[in-house]
Sequence to fold (136 residues):
Amino acid sequence: MDITIETLVKAPLARVWSAWNDPRAIERWNAASPDWHTPRASVDLREGGRFSTRMEARDGSEGFDFEGIYTRVEPQRLIEYTMNDQRRVRVEFQASAGGTTVRETFDADDTYTPEQQREGWQAILDSFARYAEANA
Fold:
């Protein structure tokens, strides 16, 4: 099952692309809620390159690594990757008069309901939009 989420970021495409792929920026926006954070991120943005983000609860009670391999990269247009559990993700970037639309389509997992997954991924995407707009 595929799940798709999207947001309009009120910032130019070049700035949105940069914020999405800069490890230091990822550490600032990559959280679904204020009680989580990303203490480290790495990005090797090329086909066959790896990415890794460490997501943790701020109180240290839990955390996990979100990792994968880029399978397709079209600068300022498209990123596709496969996560370590073999689920696939497609991220599209589309410039418009109002800013940049970012659309993510991902394979659902078997652990959480589709609605929980949609809400969690959307919360992170919304956090990204706030960061990119404030830092444009």
